[in-house]
Amino acid sequence: MKVWVLRHGEAEPRANTDAERRLTNHGREQVLRSAARLLGQPLQAIIASPYVRAQQTAALVHDALGLDEPVRTVPWLTPDSDVGQVIGELDQLGLEHVLLVSHQPLVGTLVGMLEHGHGQQPAPLSTASLAELEGDWPLAGLMTLQGLYHAG
Q: TM segments (predicted)?
């Protein structure tokens, strides 16, 4: 199984609510650089947070890769979602190749948990950073971080 975790691109500093913050032009460029790393990968699904900046990020990746499967929006990928719940949901999806699009602190903690089995070493994902994990199951401590790419 391969799981890619993508933090949304750079977003506006303010909006009416955190969930409404939109990508900046620079953020869109960052996302497209990260999407290029996914070209040729056998993605079965893109699963994204309902927040606007994550939806925009997922849509950019979806379009860049020309995927047929629409982006799936789920409530369990918001910034403060429970990492254990995310891992459980990921396991229930039954997919072999999936991209998750979300936010800090969730993305860093999730990558750290999948790699190390605890939340004490979160991965340093800046905007549009992409982590690639591989393992037999999406279980805490049982996946290997294959790469961590920063869009700059």
A: none
